[in-house]
Every structure is written in C-alpha cells, then in structure tokens.
Design goal:
Order of helices and strands: HHHHHHHH
Strand content: under 5%
Helix content: 40-55%
Shape: globular
Number of strands: 0
Number of helices: 8
Largest sheet: none
Structural class: mainly alpha
CATH topology of the largest domain: Cytochrome Bc1 Complex, Chain D, domain 2
Bound molecules: heme C
Distance between the termini: 62 Å
CATH superfamily of the largest domain: Cytochrome c-like domain
Length: 188
C-alpha cells in the first residue's frame, strides 16, 4: 500500500516538475532577452521596467535635473567614445582569481547567447536565426581577437548592434573580468 502511494506520487509529481523546469527556463530566456532597455532591443518580449521613473498617483511633477549635473550614483556606463576607449586597459589587470569570478559571471550573463564555449551558439542563438537577426558573435573569431581590450570593454558596456548593453547590469570591474574571460577563450 505504502509502495502504491509512493509510485502514484512519483507519477503525479514528475510531469509537474517538468513543467516547472520548462517554465523557469522560459522565464530566464525572457528575462535575459529583455534585460536591456525598454523597447530598444530587437527581440524584446516584455518591456523592461527596471529603469523607469515611476510617478505615484497625484505626485507632483519631478523637477528637471540641473543643467550640467553629473550622476554620482547609479549607472556605471562609461562616457568615452568607442575611439577613446581603444587604448583603455583593465585597471586591475588579469589574475587567476578574476578569471574564475569572470567565468562564473559569463556563464550566467553571456553563455545563453554566446554559448559556454563562446562560439556564439548558446540556446538563445536560435531565436536570432529564426528572426533573421544578426546572431551572437563567435568570441574566438578573428574579428573579436583583433579588437583591443578597451574596445571589448566598451562594447560590453554600451552594446553594439544586437549585443545588449551591460553597463547598468554589471559593474565596471565585472566588465573588465568579461574581457579577461574572452581573451582566455581566445587562448590569450
Ligand atoms: C541576448 C543575447 C546576448 C547576450 C546575453 C550577450 N551577447 Fe554579446 N553579442 C550578442 C550579439 C547578437 C552580438 C553580435 C552583435 C552584432 O554584430 O549585431 C554580440 C556581440 C558581442 C561582442 C562583439 C563582438 C565583435 O567584436 O563584434 C562582444 C565582445 C560580446 N558580444 C560580449 C558579450 C559578453 C561579455 C556578454 C555577457 C556579459 C554578452 N556578450 C552577452 C548577443 C548577446
């Protein structure tokens, strides 16, 4: 009898687990695809609300920011142009520990598109093919190899084409770690 119940439970709970896994996989994909800016990303599914300035009901209009004000909190996006970023290098250099941390970050934030081998064939890459959109780059390709560290850091920060900007999602330090991870994939 006890066995009978156990096997019944096993039968009932298996499909439920399967659908929970499927749902969380879908939710993760959607979150990643929309983890950029509202309505700007070609594959946006849900509009992103992290960055909106919510006004409460009957709240007075917000005052405009004074001219020439400089943000001292919040976004860590860089102000340099792509050309200016060319010669920039990591302020902390490359260490085995930073590579390890960066790899963990890459697995969470980048592998879904670029693949865990960085060849641009992550699970979401198929969505680009289906939408005839420029696919995730092969980070070991000649084109990416020939970019400077500063250029890679700038692209990760500000985005490029279908590459979403990570300036507001990762710290400056994490983005330099990402550069080290890419170089490591390139055998450098
Ligand atoms: C939603 C999918 C997606 C995610 C997530 C993503 N990328 Fe990309 N990435 C792309 C696409 C697509 C391109 C190609 C852009 C183009 O050419 O339009 C690209 C291009 C790049 C390039 C530029 C290659 C070149 O030289 O042209 C770099 C560097 C890069 N990604 C690094 C990263 C890193 C590091 C992460 C994680 C922090 C990441 N990407 C996360 C989709 C993604």
């Amino acid at each position: 009898m006890a066995n009978g119940i156990a096997s019944l439970r096993a039968r009932v709970s298996r499909p439920r687990w399967r659908s929970i896994v499927a749902c969380s996989g879908l939710a993760m994909t959607v979150t990643l695809l929309s983890g950029c800016y509202p309505g700007q990303y070609p594959l946006d599914i849900f509009r992103e609300m992290h960055y909106q300035q919510s006004n409460r009901l009957l709240q007075a209009d917000r005052l405009a920011v004074p001219r020439d004000a400089v943000p001292i909190t919040g976004s860590s996006r860089t102000q340099e142009s792509f050309a200016q970023a060319r010669t920039m290098t990591s302020p902390t250099g490359r260490t085995p520990q930073r590579l390890e941390q960066g790899q963990a970050m890459f697995n969470v934030n980048c592998a879904v598109c670029h693949g865990s081998d960085a060849h641009g064939t992550g699970p979401v890459a198929e969505r680009f093919a289906a939408g005839s959109a420029n696919p995730p780059a092969d980070l070991t390709s000649q084109r990416v190899r020939s970019r400077t560290d500063g250029e890679l850091h700038w692209i990760i920060t500000n985005g490029l084409g279908n590459m979403p900007p990570f300036g507001d999602l990762l710290t400056d330090d994490q983005r330099w770690q990402a550069v080290q991870v890419i170089r490591n994939y390139q055998g450098q």
